[in-house]
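I have been asked to look over a protein record a colleague put together. Alongside the sequence sits a line of tokens, each denoting a local backbone shape. Please read both lines and tell me whether the tokens look consistent with the sequence. I do not need a full report, just your reasoning and any doubts. I have pasted the whole thing underneath without changing anything.
>
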Amino acid sequence: MKSPVPAESASELIDEKIKELGDWRGKTLAKVRKIIHAADPEVVEEVKWMGTPVWSHDGIICTGETYKSVVKLTFIKGAALADPKGLFNSSLEGNVRRAIDIHEGDKINEAALKALIRAAVVLNLENKSKPKPRRAKSKRAE
């Protein structure tokens, strides 16, 4: 199993990915990255799953995948987040995650995205502070 990429290296790898894309996808990824850092200055950048940028704070907040026609922000626990501005437009059928597909030319609602990011951090912190339920011990017949 691969060991995680150190945070400094992960940030550098994300910088390289943005530069290598060299088109609207790189600019979009750079923009959402900036919004994520503005929403949560304590966010940790990681690179997982074959070079996918990941932003975490006591658990994964979201990933930033790039495809030919879309930049996809996948919120790992998105189904548990309120989305009053309707940013989630992909992966809506799942029970846990939700995603935002950003196409070339789409305008990003920065305030709403920051609110989602902050809500994801709060959810991670709440889940971290809850004690994990213990399994009931089975009583063996004697």
Summary: The mean pLDDT is 89. Strands lie at 44-48, 52-56, 60-66, 71-75, 98-102. The helical segments are 7-21, 24-39, 110-129. The chain is about 35% helix and 20% strand.
